[in-house]
Specification:
This protein has about 280 residues and is α/β, with parallel strands linked by helices. Helix content is about 50%, strand content about 15%. Strands 1, 2, 3, 4, 5, 6, 7 and 8 form an eight-stranded mixed β-sheet that branches. Strand 4 and strand 5 form a beta hairpin. The chain is globular, with a radius of gyration of 18 Å. The chain starts with 17 loop residues before the first strand and ends with a helix. The N terminus is likely disordered.
Amino acid sequence: MPETPDAPSSTTPGDDAVTGAHEIPVPSDRPILAFFDVDNTLMRGTSLFHLGREAAARKIIGFREIVRFAWHQRRFISVGENQDHLDSARDRALGLARGLKVADITSLAEHIWEHRISKRLYPETVGLAQEHVAKGHEVWLVSATPVEIGAVMAKHLGLTGALGTVVEAVEGVYTGKLVGHTLHADRKAVAARELADTARADLADCWAYSDSRNDIPLLAMVGNPVAVNPDADLARHAEENGWPMMRLTPRSIRGAQRRVRREARRVRRSARRSAD
């Protein structure tokens, strides 16, 4: 995938949840934002697991910890997220980060991208994210995974930036404490809404994509929610509320791309009428 050049970062919402922002053109005087969940939406499995694997390979953590990461990965793929699993993974990540340099974790994230994450991306949802970029929309990854991983993914995929969980750092060294909270469930929606408010975006024109019932608050707050390979609870909620459901099949992807193009045209026409 092509990389985008570095650009000045944008204004960030509370809890320092945003990083890796890039300037891109917008189709009207109000930007349109598209929020993409990462784990099991943009890639297969959980990105935090690959952080654990690489940390084990570098002898940062031991065999017992990597076994726990492996269990979490299998459970995540088979039955989806739950708060207990997320809390366990969060605690492992915080313990892993304590005392490490920010520069080292950023380097680790780059290595994980190249050798692990890039090979597990769903090309269909990556293509859809880049379809939004082509229409002049801002595209933000939003995930409970450490923000450093999301920022590296956004950079390499040519997206706008990332919202993620932030670990406190003092003088370039992680303390092992969170800044704010794990970016999960309702807190994803809060961070995304703060970003939209800062950007002066109309949430009715914005998009969100996720596979998980935990992201219903994020999906519900935008005008264009899309359930991607949804778990059973999200599929039921999407059907009850008339939300589109996208399976990773060529037909479903083409339909999703047509919706993006159609809505982009609608917003442009609306902006022109408002300007007249």
